[in-house]
Structures are given as C-alpha cells and as structure tokens.
Amino acid sequence: MADRKQEPQSKDAVRGELQLLKCAKRLEQFSTGRFRDGHGGSLTRFDVLANLSRAPGRSLPTSELASNLISSQGNITRLLDRMEADGLIERGSHHADRRVSVVALTDAGQRSFESMAGEHEHWMGEIFGVLGENETRQLIRLLGKIRARIDVLDEDGA
Predict the structure, then answer these.
(1) Alpha carbon distance 6, 84 (integer Å)
(2) In percent, how much of the chain has pLDDT > 70?
(3) What residue ranges do the domains of the chain occupy?
(4) Do 120 and 112 meet the contact criterion of CB atoms below 8 Å apart?
(5) Which CATH class is domain 26-124?
(6) Are 103 and 88 in contact (CB under 8 A)?
(7) Average pLDDT over every residue of 102-110
(8) Where are the alpha helices (DSSP H) in the chain?
(9) Is residue 146 scored above 80 in pLDDT?
(10) What's the pTM value of the predicted model, to 2 decimals?
C-alpha cells in the first residue's frame, strides 16, 4: 500500500469537520441544559414543539415528525408519551388512513413553544453575537453549501 501524502485542503477539511462536530455538540448541550433548567424539557422536546407549531394544522404524521427532528431520538414514542401526559400534544389517527398515527400540538403546547422559542432566540443571540451580522449570514450560507454537498455525496453513494 503506497503512502499518500495528505493535501493541505484535506487536513483543513478534517479540522473543519472536527470544529463543526464539537461546536454542534456544545450547542446541543448548552440548549438542552437551558431548556432543562428553565422549562423542565430538552432540545428534542423543543424541536418537537417547533416542528408541530409550523406544520399545517399544527399536526404531522409521527413518522414525518421523527424524520424532521434535529437530534436523533432513540425512543420518540416515550418522548411523545411524556409530552401527551403533560398536555402539550395529542395523538390520533390520520383522517384518510387510520393506520397512520398523527401528533397534534395543543394550545398548551403552543404556549409552551412560544415561551421556549423567545428564550431560545435570546440564547442564540448571545452565542452568535460574537459574529457580526454579515459573518452570521456567511456562516449560514457556508454551512448550507456543506450540507447540500453531503446530500449530493450521500445520494451518489446510495
């Protein structure tokens, strides 16, 4: 097996990957801690509420909701059980196909989401405030390009 010298761009790409992963992990830990301390919840619970809040009719099939979540949630059924017991969501069957389970946001869930969303926006403003507005927009654009490239490479490899 021949020794291959890594190109500087490849080394920088690996460094970039590590920084992104470390940053994402810290952001998730930070947000989860704040949601836990202020709302007795988690980033995943907030993510469920956010997805339902912006969905048409404030409801989604369970499978679609699960695929939209930012964090991988090993046991979404248990999370939804707790959220239903807390009165934040309701579950039922799809009107056109009773085999499909649907999750709907309750009024209490919407109020909870709005309270959490305001605080979340403030926390992220504190974190991203280290960047200027143009830098933040550039970061969003660059991360979007990386995400799109991953999607293309993932499709090609499938």
Answers:
(1) 52
(2) 92
(3) 26-124
(4) no
(5) mainly alpha
(6) no
(7) 96
(8) 8-39, 43-54, 62-68, 76-85, 107-128, 133-157
(9) yes
(10) 0.81
